[in-house]
Design goal:
Layout (H helix, E strand, L loop, with lengths): L2 H11 L2 H38 L4 E5 L3 H10 L7 E2 L2 H6 L4 E14 L4 E8 L4 H4 L5 E3 L7 E4 L1 H7 L6 E4 L5 E8 L10 E4 H8 L4 E2 L1 E6 L5 H11 L3 E5 H44 L1 H9 L4 H29 L1 H11 L13 H27 L3 H6 L1
Parallel strand pairs: 4-9, 6-8
Antiparallel strand pairs: 1-11, 1-12, 2-10, 3-4, 3-11, 5-8, 6-9, 7-8
Keywords: Cell membrane, Membrane, Transmembrane, Transmembrane helix
Pfam families: FtsX, MacB_PCD
GO molecular function: transmembrane transporter activity
């Protein structure tokens, strides 16, 4: 450690409490900045991964809001509109389509248990295509009265494959065929069953909330969509890219708000650094005057004070990154509790580029905050300072 840097460090140690509090202020700012940037990156990557996992190229739904479609695709939102599954005839007769499956998502009350099940009716033969990442304990339902439970449902009801989930009003007994292993997404909260069974339970024999479609050649998807739109009035077709853009726009709004809060926190931290260093300068006026009297130049004084600011900014920044990574799971848990949709998987992880960029940014802010106190210290007149 150079002489000037060592002197700067010793000066900070003389006022440990103030220095620590100032560093913690910087740590909080860089920690929040790192978390927001990391979460945004993880969100976009997770969203893209989940859309790829659906195995679908576009969704056919009743005319409505694209945000509702996005929610349906990604976590089975309940949409108060239905398609007539007769649309499937037009879909399957359209050239270039390799997979088309109706999906029926709804809430199903169970008076006996005093609960409401979230059911997800689907063609079980197509389940592996639209949920390729799932691992199932037991088997995929092959009978009309068999169901597949999401992990959270199975844990809450304490059910295993072969157990009875419920007996419906029409006397139908629903048996657990299998349980989906933990996905960390909203998929864990649903009861999956053959779409014919779901239609019967809801008394909507030809209803679907959406039809998922996969094409043979993605390059011809625009032609296929135009053909379907012309053949079937009253439908809305949304591609996975449009779903991603829709949710990404919502995430961008949240990101803008978060960054605004971060900038305010950084501004407060910068003022705190400036105040802390200025107080240190004023308290050491006579000391600085003696240093000038024994040969220290204005630049030497400026450098010492600026190095104190550098230490505070760098140490505070590194502490902030460490605490953010350490508390990433808590941050993710909080975000998932307040944000309507968050992709599954780890969203906040250590990224060297984001970490380095966050520390560099807070370092520049810290240096900028320390320039005025350093200039003020360099301007001290040695004779007046010694006289007090």
């Amino acid at each position: 450690m150079s002489g000037f840097l060592n002197l700067s460090w010793q000066n900070l140690l003389r006022h440990r409490t103030r220095s620590i509090l100032t560093m913690l202020g910087m740590a909080a700012s860089v920690g929040v900045l790192f978390s927001v940037l990391s979460f945004n990156q993880g969100f976009n990557q997770g969203l893209e991964t989940e859309l790829e996992r659906t195995g679908l190229h576009f969704m056919i739904v009743p005319s409505g809001c694209a945000h509702e479609v996005a929610s349906l695709v990604l976590h089975g939102a309940v949409i108060p509109k239905f398609l007539d599954t007769k649309v499937m005839q037009h879909v399957r007769s359209t050239s270039g389509i390799s997979l088309a499956t109706p999906i029926l998502v709804a809430q199903l009350p169970d008076p006996q248990r005093g609960k409401i099940d979230l059911i997800y009716g689907v063609d079980m033969a197509a389940l592996s295509a639209i949920k390729p990442g799932w691992q199932i304990d037991g088997k995929t339902p092959t009978q009309e009265n068999e169901v597949l439970l999401g992990y959270e449902v199975a844990q809450h009801e304490k059910l295993q494959p072969g157990d009875t989930l419920r007996t419906t009003e029409d006397g139908r007994t629903l048996i657990v065929g299998g349980i989906v292993n933990l996905t960390g997404s909203q998929d864990d909260a649903f009861v999956y069953l053959p779409i014919e069974t779901a239609q019967a339970l809801l008394d909507h024999p030809s209803a679907a909330t959406a039809i998922g479609v996969k094409v043979d050649d993605p390059s011809k998807m625009v032609e296929i969509i135009e053909s379907l739109s012309a053949a079937v009035p009253g439908i809305q077709i949304v591609t996975m890219g449009e779903v991603m853009n829709s949710i990404s726009n919502l995430a961008a709004s949240a990101k803008a708000l978060s960054l605004s809060i971060v900038l305010i926190a950084i501004l407060i931290s910068a003022v705190g650094v400036m105040n802390s260093i200025l107080m240190a300068v004023f308290e050491r006026t006579q000391e600085i005057g003696m240093m000038r009297a024994v040969g220290a130049s204005r630049f030497d004084i400026f450098r010492i004070i600026l190095e104190e600011t550098t230490i505070i900014a760098l140490v505070g920044g590194l502490i902030g990154i460490f605490l953010s990574v350490l508390g990433s799971r808590l941050i993710e848990t909080f975000v998932r509790s307040v944000v309507p949709y968050v992709p599954s998987g780890e969203l906040i992880s250590f990224d060297p580029k984001i970490a380095a960029g966050s520390v560099l940014f807070i370092f520049i802010i810290g240096i900028a905050a320390g320039v005025y106190p350093a200039w003020k210290a360099a301007k001290i007149n040695p004779i007046e300072a010694i006289k007090g």
